[in-house]
From TrEMBL:
GO molecular function, a single term: mRNA binding
Compositional bias per record (Acidic residues), positions renumbered to this chain: 34-43
Keyword Cytoplasm: yes
Name this polypeptide is given: Clustered mitochondria protein homolog
Basic and acidic residues compositional bias, start-end: 606-630, 638-662, 1218-1228
Main location: cytoplasm
UniProt GO cellular component terms: cytoplasm
Pfam families membership: CLU, CLU_N, eIF3_p135, GSKIP_dom, TPR_12
Length: 1264
C-alpha cells in the first residue's frame, strides 16, 4: 500500500473521470465550470472578538462571525471550562435579551469587543432534568451503561495507548525494540490498556425516593428532589426549585422539602462545592485525569453509530466493571419526562419539514443539512432500538393473527415489518430471499433519492436492521398509508398497484419522477397492466408514488431502480440462484453513462473537425494577408496600445475557441429501461421493437460489467496501480465503488489465478465463506430466543473453526434453559462439522457460483474468519487466546501457568494473578457441560449488536467546498484552494459533528493534501484526528484506521519524529496481522518505509531485517525474478552495507543486477546503476578483506590481545567504527564507498553519484 497516495492532489478533475481534455461540457445548457464556481461561493463572514461576562464575575473572550447563530455561541459557553456550572441561561446585550436562534448580525449595535452577559433563567422541570443529567456527566457520577444497540465499549479508541508507547520510545533514545514477524497475533492490540479508575467527586447522586413533588409543592416551584452522598460520608437531600438548588430538611424517613441552612445556588455544581469540601479537589483531579487522553477519544458521538468492537475484555476486567448507580434506572424519566413526551416524536413530519427549509444561501444550507444529519441520527438510533425489541418479541404486533413474517408493528412512531415475503409479494421473484434482498436495494435507492434532494419529492425515514438472523425494516409513518382507499380509488397514484395487475399514472407525479429518472439514468418506457393497457412511466413500474394526507408526494419501493443482470441469470454455469433480484448496481450504470457521454463528445468533436480545419486555414490566410498592414501601422502607435490590443484580441480568440470547443449535452440522454426481462409483454410491433432495443442496451451494460469493469479491476491490482483490500469490508467497498455486485466474488476468485492476485483471491474466498456461514447461521438463529443464541453461536463456530481441536463438537446448552424453552426447536444441536461444511459449500455455490476446494476448511485463517463472521453477525466475544488446533492447545497448555498480562508492570501482574479466573485461561482448559475441550463456549459470546443500514445522505455543501478546493489547487490557485479546504473542514465539523465517519475521511483527505503542500505539522495533526475518529466510528481494526496510522507515521517521520513514527507504524502492522494475517502485498511498501525510518535513527541492523522481510513478501507475491524483487534487492544491498556486511551486500547487489539485466536489458538505466553499485561494493568488500587480513597479520606478529584501528584507505567503505557509521547518511552511501566523501564530513559534494533505481513508492516516498 502506498500510504501517502490513496488521496492525491487532483491531477485530473475532481470527479475522477477521464473525459475529453480541454473540452468544457455543457449539461442542459449550463456550464459545469459555472456550477463549480457557484459551489465555491464565498460569503463575507469576518469573525470579530466579543467578551462573555459570566455571573461568577469571570469573562470569556471568543470570536464570533456575523452569520453565526446565538445558540451556537451558547453551546460554546456551556462547553467552556470557566462556565461548567451554567446550562439554563440566556444572553443579553445592553440589557436586552437575545433570541437563541437569531444571527449575530441581527443584533443591533453589536460590534467588536462588546460585552454579552450570561443571565441565569428560572428552571422548568425539563431544564432541571437536563441540568441534572449534564452535571452528573460532568462530575463523573454517571456509572457504566448497558446499551441495547451500541454494545460493549462502543466507540473505543486505543490511540492514547499508542501515544504513550511513542512518547516512551521518543524519550528512551535507546535501541529500537525488535519486531517479531513470526509472533502470533495478539488481540490485546485491539483493546485499551487497563488503568486506574477515575477520581470520584461524590459517592452517589440520584433522584430522591421522595420525587416527584406533590401537586401543592409543584405549585410552589418544586421540580425535582435529589439525594447526594458525598465523599465525606454525608448524605444531603436537595430540592431543585425554579430558582435553583438548595439543601432541604428531608431524611430517608421524613419528608420536609423546606430549605435547610444557607446552602443554595442556581447551579447544582456550585451547591455541591458548598456542601462537600472534597468536591472541588476531586473535580480538579478528574479533569487532570481526563486531560491525559486526547479530547477526541472521549468526545461524545452525536450523529453516528459508534463502532462496536468484536473483541471485548473479559467480564472480570476493570474496563467492564459494573458499578452501582441509583440514577441508571432513572435515566429514561430524566431524558423523556414523566409522560415520555420528550422522546415521542413525529418522525415523518420532522423529516419532511426539515427538507422544506430554505436553501438559498450558504447559511441556510448549513443549517438545513446540519438539522437533517442530526434528525437522521436520532431516528436511526430510535428505530434501531425498536427493531431490536421487535426481533426479541417484546413489541405487540398490529395483526397478531397473521403469520409471524407477515406481522407489522408500530413502536415509537416507527412502522416495522420483517424483511420476508409474508404476504406473497415476491413469490415469483424468490420468496423470502427476494424480499430480504429487496429491502437492502430499497434503502440504497432511498439514500440515492435523499442525496439528489429533489424538490417536491419525499421519502420516509428508512432503516434496515439485521439482528439474530432476522431482518427488520423500520420506516417513518407516511400520513395516510394505513388509510383504506375508497371504492374506485387506488392508494398508489403512480406505478404498480396490487402487484402489477393495475398500473397508476397520475400526471401530477410525472414531473418529479422525470427529474428523478434523469438523475438515475432511467429511461421513460411503456408498461402494461393485466388488461394489456399501456402506460408511459418515467420510472420502474415497481417504484411507487403515493400522495399522503399531508398532500406531499412520496416515492416508495425503490428496490428496482436499475435493470436485471440478465447475463448472470442466463449463464449456464450459474446454479439455481436463490432469487431474481439480481439487479445491476447504480454505480455501474453511472460509470457506463460516463463512457457513453465521452463517446458522444468524441463523436460531436469529430463532426466539427473538418469544418474547424477549413476555418483555421482561412483564419491563418487572413492573418498572413493582414500582417504587412499591421507592420506598417505599428510605428504610428505606441507599443503599449499595440500590446493591449494584442492581448484583447488573444482573449477574444480564446473565448471564441472555448465556445467552439464546448459540446451541448442537452441532446445526450442515455438511460436504461429497468423493467426489461421482468414479465412485460409489449402489444404493438413498435413496442416490441423498442423492447428489443431496450433489452440489448441492458445486455450491453451487463457485458460492460463482465468484459470491461471486472478485467480493469484485476489488471489494476495485478499491476499494483491500486491498493489491495485488507478485509471483507474494504473488499466490498472496492467492488461496490466500481459497480460490481458481490455475487461476482466467485468469478473474481476464479479469474485471480495469477500469483500476483493470490491475496485478492484469498480475500474473495474468505468473504464468500463468511457470507455463506452468515446465511446458514441465520436459518438456525431465527426461531431462537435470546438466551439460547450464545449456545448456537458457540456450536456453529466450533463446527467451522474448532474442528482442529475437537473434530466432534457437541452443543453446550444450559439444562435449565433447555427445560424452560421446551417448545423451541433446537435444530442447531444436530449440526456436525461435515453437515456445516456441506451447507457452506452449497451456499457458496448457489450465491456466488463458486466451488470451494476440498481442503478449504483446513486452509482457513481461523482468527481472520472469526473476525469477519463476528462483524457480519454483530458478535462481541471475550478476549482470550483462542485455540483452533491441537498443536495450539499443546502450546497453550505449556503457557497456562503464565499470567495473561505478561507484559504488565510487576505490581499489576502480582495483583491480578490471584484474581484470574478460569475464563482468562486457554480455551483448552475451560470446562464445559460436555466435559470436552472446545474452541468456543457459550460464555465467550457476551453480546450481539444489531447491524444497521441507514438512508442518511452526505452533505452536498461540504463536498462542493472540498471539490472546489482541490480544483483550485490543481489550477495553481493555492491560497484560494487552502481557504476552500479549510471551509470544507469547517462545514464537515459543523454538519456532522466532530466524531463521524465522513469527518474522519475529511481529516484523512486533508492531511494528505497538506502533506503534499509541504505543511507537515498540519498534516500530522489532521492524521491523528483521522486515526482517532476512524477508530471510534469505523472500527479500531478497520482498514481505514490502519491507513490513517500508516499516514501518521509517514508524516511524523518527514517531520523529524522518526522514533514516534515507528510506534505508529508498529501498531499499524499489528493491526494488519489481525485483519488479514501475514504477507499482505501492501505491507511491502509499509515495511520499506519502516526500514527507512530505522535508518534515519541509525538502527541499521533492524532496518536490514525489515528490508529482508519486505523482499520475502515481494518474492511471495510477485516472484523472485521480477523488477519488484530486483528493486528490493538493490535496497537490501544498501542496508547490508550500512550494517557492515559487505559480502552480503555484494551478493544481493549481484542478484539485483542479474535480474535487471535479464528483464530490462543491459542498456536500461536501472541495470547500469546496479552495475555501478556492484563494482563499488565489490571494491569495498575487497578493501575491507585486505584490511582484515593485514590486521590479523599484525595481530599474529605482535600478539596483540586487542585489535587496533588501522588507517583507512582512500577507497574504503563505511568503517567498522560505530561512531563513524552514525555520521553516515543513506543518500551519501555511494559517495562514501567511492571515497569521494570524507569520513565524518556532512558537507555534500556538488556532483551527486548515481541514485537508486526507479522503484514503486515504498521507501522512496518515505525518504523524499
Amino acid at each position: 500500500m502506498s500510504e501517502s497516495s490513496s488521496t492525491k492532489l487532483p491531477s485530473e478533475p475532481a470527479n475522477g473521470s477521464s473525459e475529453v481534455p480541454e473540452t468544457q461540457v455543457v449539461q442542459n445548457g449550463v456550464d459545469e465550470q459555472t456550477q463549480v464556481e457557484d459551489g465555491a461561493e464565498q460569503v463575507e463572514d469576518t469573525p470579530f472578538p466579543i467578551k462573555i461576562v459570566l455571573p461568577n464575575t469571570k469573562s470569556i473572550d471568543i470570536h464570533v462571525s456575523p452569520l453565526e447563530q446565538f445558540h451556537e455561541i451558547r453551546q460554546s459557553i456551556i462547553e467552556n471550562p470557566d462556565a461548567v456550572e451554567y446550562s439554563c441561561f440566556h444572553l443579553a446585550h445592553d440589557g436586552k435579551k437575545i433570541n437563541d436562534f437569531a444571527q449575530v448580525s441581527d443584533v443591533e449595535g453589536l460590534k467588536a469587543n462588546d460585552e454579552l452577559h450570561v443571565v441565569e433563567d428560572p428552571y422548568t422541570e425539563k431544564e432541571a432534568r437536563i441540568h441534572f443529567i449534564r452535571i452528573r456527566e460532568l462530575i463523573g457520577a454517571a456509572g457504566d451503561r448497558t446499551d441495547t444497540i451500541h454494545g460493549i465499549l462502543a466507540g473505543l479508541s486505543v490511540h492514547d495507548d499508542v501515544v504513550f508507547a511513542a512518547e516512551e520510545a521518543k524519550q528512551s533514545k535507546g535501541e529500537v525494540k525488535e519486531y517479531d514477524f513470526r509472533a502470533p497475533v495478539s488481540l490485546a492490540t485491539l483493546l485499551p490498556k487497563e488503568s486506574e479508575p477515575a477520581p470520584k467527586t461524590v459517592k452517589n447522586i440520584s433522584l430522591s425516593p421522595w420525587h416527584p413533588p406533590p401537586a401543592h409543592l409543584r405549585q410552589q416551584g418544586h421540580l425535582l428532589y435529589l439525594v447526594v452522598s458525598t465523599n465525606e460520608g454525608n448524605q444531603f437531600h436537595i430540592t431543585a426549585h425554579a430558582g435553583g438548588f438548595y439543601v432541604n430538611n428531608c431524611s430517608n424517613a421524613k419528608f420536609d422539602p423546606s430549605k435547610k441552612g444557607d446552602e443554595e445556588a442556581h447551579s447544582l455544581y456550585t451547591l455541591l462545592s458548598q456542601i462537600s469540601k472534597d468536591f472541588s479537589d476531586k473535580f480538579e483531579q478528574l479533569q487532570q485525569f481526563t486531560n491525559k487522553r486526547d479530547p477526541l477519544s472521549t468526545f461524545q458521538i452525536g450523529n453516528a453509530f459508534p463502532s462496536a468492537p468484536w473483541i471485548v475484555p473479559s467480564t472480570g476486567s476493570p474496563l467492564l466493571s459494573h458499578s452501582p448507580d441509583s440514577a441508571r434506572t432513572q435515566e429514561t424519566y430524566l431524558l423523556g419526562g414523566a409522560e415520555n413526551t420528550d422522546s415521542l416524536r413525529d418522525w415523518n413530519e420532522e423529516f419532511q419539514s426539515a427538507k422544506e427549509l430554505p436553501k438559498e444561501t450558504i447559511q441556510d444550507r448549513v443549517f438545513r443539512e446540519r438539522l437533517l444529519c442530526k434528525l437522521y441520527s436520532d431516528y436511526n438510533d430510535a428505530a434501531a432500538r425498536g427493531a431490536v425489541l421487535v426481533a426479541r418479541g417484546e413489541v405487540a404486533p398490529l395483526n397478531p393473527t397473521e403469520d409471524r413474517d407477515a406481522q407489522i408493528f408500530v413502536y415509537n412512531n416507527v412502522f416495522y415489518s420483517f424483511g420476508a415475503d409474508g404476504v406473497g409479494t415476491f413469490t415469483s421473484e424468490g420468496g423470502d430471499e427476494a424480499a430480504r434482498v429487496a429491502t437492502g436495494k430499497d434503502i440504497l435507492g432511498v439514500k440515492l433519492v435523499n442525496q439528489l434532494d429533489i424538490a417536491g419529492l419525499y421519502t420516509p425515514g428508512t432503516i434496515v436492521v439485521d439482528y439474530l438472523g432476522k431482518r427488520i425494516v423500520g420506516q417513518s409513518i407516511v400520513p395516510g398509508i394505513f388509510k383504506q382507499p375508497e371504492d374506485g380509488e387506488n392508494q398508489i397514484h403512480y406505478g404498480a398497484v396490487d402487484g402489477k395487475d393495475t398500473v397508476a399514472a397520475d400526471e401530477s407525479f410525472a414531473a418529479s419522477f422525470e427529474t428523478l429518472a434523469r438523475a438515475l439514468r432511467i429511461k421513460k418506457h411503456t408498461v402494461w397492466d393485466k388488461e394489456h393497457k399501456a402506460f408511459n412511466l418515467e420510472a420502474s413500474v415497481e417504484m411507487k408514488g403515493l400522495r399522503g394526507t399531508d398532500s406531499r408526494k412520496y416515492v416508495l419501493d425503490l428496490y428496482r431502480i436499475t435493470p436485471l443482470d440478465i447475463l448472470w441469470m442466463e449463464d449456464d454455469k450459474v446454479a439455481e440462484y436463490p432469487h431474481r433480484m439480481t439487479v445491476l448496481r447504480p454505480e455501474l450504470v453511472e460509470s457506463l453513462g460516463k463512457v457513453k457521454a465521452r463517446e458522444y463528445i468524441t463523436a460531436e468533436l469529430a463532426k466539427r473537425q473538418p469544418q474547424k480545419d477549413t476555418t483555421d486555414a482561412a483564419a491563418e490566410t487572413k492573418e498572413i494577408d493582414d500582417k504587412p498592414a499591421q507592420d506598417e501601422a505599428a510605428p504610428s502607435e505606441s507599443a503599449k496600445d499595440a500590446e493591449a490590443g494584442d492581448v484583447e484580441k488573444e482573449n477574444e480568440k480564446k473565448d471564441e475557441d472555448d465556445k467552439a470547443n464546448r459540446v451541448d449535452m442537452s441532446s445526450f440522454n442515455w438511460a436504461l429501461n429497468p423493467d426489461v426481462f421482468s414479465g412485460q409483454e409489449p402489444q404493438t410491433d413498435e413496442d416490441k421493437e423498442q423492447m428489443v432495443k431496450d433489452e440489448q442496451e441492458v445486455r450491453d451494460a451487463c457485458k460492460y460489467l463482465r468484459e470491461t469493469v471486472i478485467p480493469e479491476l484485476l489488471n489494476e491490482l495485478r499491476e499494483s496501480d491500486i491498493s489491495f483490500p485488507m478485509d471483507g469490508r474494504s473488499l466490498t467497498r472496492q467492488l461496490h465503488r466500481r459497480g460490481i455486485n458481490l455475487r461476482y466474488l466467485g468469478k473474481l476468485a476464479t479469474l485471480s489465478a495469477d500469483k500476483r492476485l493470490s491475496c485478492f483471491r484469498e480475500l474473495c474466498v474468505r468473504e464468500m465463506i463468511a457470507r455463506s456461514f452468515k446465511h446458514v447461521a441465520a436459518k438456525y438463529l431465527k426461531p431462537l430466543p435470546l438466551p439460547l443464541t450464545s449456545s448456537c453461536f458457540a456450536h456453529l463456530l466450533n463446527c467451522l473453526l474448532g474442528v482442529g481441536l475437537n473434530p466432534s463438537p457437541k452443543a453446550d446448552i444450559e439444562p435449565s434453559l433447555r427445560s424452560l424453552y421446551k417448545d423451541v426447536k433446537l435444530e442447531f444441536e444436530n449440526v456436525t462439522p461435515d453437515s456445516l461444511k456441506a451447507d457452506v459449500q452449497e451456499e457458496t455455490k448457489r450465491r456466488f457460483n463458486y466451488t470451494l476446494d476440498d481442503e478449504w476448511l483446513a486452509q482457513l485463517k481461523h482468527l481472520q474468519v472469526l473476525r469477519e463472521i463476528s462483524l457480519k453477525l454483530g458478535l462481541q466475544l471475550q478476549k482470550k487466546d483462542f485455540v483452533f488446533t491441537a498443536a495450539q492447545n499443546g502450546h497453550a497448555s505449556n503457557k497456562a501457568a503464565e499470567p495473561e498480562q505478561a507484559q504488565a508492570p510487576p505490581e499489576t501482574k502480582t495483583k491480578n494473578k490471584k484474581k484470574k479466573s478460569a475464563r482468562d485461561g486457554s480455551p483448552a482448559s475451560i470446562g464445559s457441560s460436555t466435559g470436552v475441550a472446545h474452541t468456543f463456549s457459550p460464555k465467550d459470546f457476551v453480546n450481539v449488536v444489531p447491524i444497521t443500514k441507514d438512508s442518511c445522505p452526505r452533505s452536498a455543501l461540504a463536498e462542493e467546498a472540498l471539490d472546489a478546493g482541490r480544483l483550485s489547487i490543481f489550477q495553481n490557485q493555492r491560497k484560494l484552494g487552502e481557504d476552500l479546504l479549510l471551509e470544507s473542514l469547517s462545514l464537515h465539523e459543523q454538519i456532522y459533528g466532530l466524531v463521524h465517519p465522513e469527518v474522519a475521511q475529511m481529516y484523512h483527505t486533508l492531511s494528505q493534501l497538506y502533506y503534499q503542500l509541504g505543511q507537515k505539522d498540519a498534516a500530522v495533526e489532521l492524521a491523528k484526528k483521522a486515526a482517532i475518529v476512524a477508530e471510534r466510528t469505523v472500527g479500531v481494526d478497520s482498514a481505514e484506521t490502519v491507513l490513517n496510522y500508516l499516514n501518521l507515521s509517514l508524516f511524523l517521520h518527514q517531520s523529524g519524529e522518526s522514533r514516534e513514527a515507528l510506534q505508529y507504524a508498529r501498531h499499524a502492522l499489528d493491526l494488519w496481522k489481525v485483519i488479514y494475517g501475514p504477507d499482505h502485498p501492501d505491507t511491502i511498501t509499509t515495511m520499506n518505509n519502516y526500514a527507512v525510518m530505522l535508518q534515519s535513527i541509525q538502527a541499521y541492523h533492524e532496518s536490514r531485517k525489515f528490508f529482508e522481510q519486505s523482499l520475502r513478501v515481494c518474492e511471495t507475491v510477485f516472484g523472485d525474478r521480477t523488477v519488484h524483487s530486483a528493486t528490493l534487492l538493490f535496497q537490501l544491498a544498501q542496508a547490508l552495507a550500512l550494517d557492515n556486511d559487505p559480502k552480503g551486500a555484494v551478493n544481493k547487489m549481484r542478484e539485483s543486477y542479474t535480474i535487471f539485466k535479464t528483464v530490462l536489458g543491459e542498456d536500461d538505466k536501472n541495470t547500469k546503476e546496479a552495475s555501478h553499485w556492484l563494482d563499488q561494493l565489490t571494491q569495498n568488500a575487497v578493501a575491507l578483506a585486505k584490511q582484515a587480513k593485514e590486521t590479523e597479520g599484525r595481530r599474529t606478529r605482535f600478539k596483540f590481545s586487542t585489535m587496533s584501528t588501522p588507517a583507512q584507505p582512500a577507497t574504503a567503505a563505511p568503517p567498522t567504527s560505530k561512531k563513524m557509521d552514525d555520521n553516515r547518511d543513506v543518500d551519501l552511501l555511494v559517495k562514501y564507498i567511492e571515497g569521494t566523501e570524507k569520513m565524518g564530513s556532512s558537507k555534500s559534494s556538488s556532483k551527486r553519484g548515481p541514485g537508486n533505481p526507479k522503484r514503486r513508492g515504498g521507501a522512496a516516498k518515505a525518504s523524499s
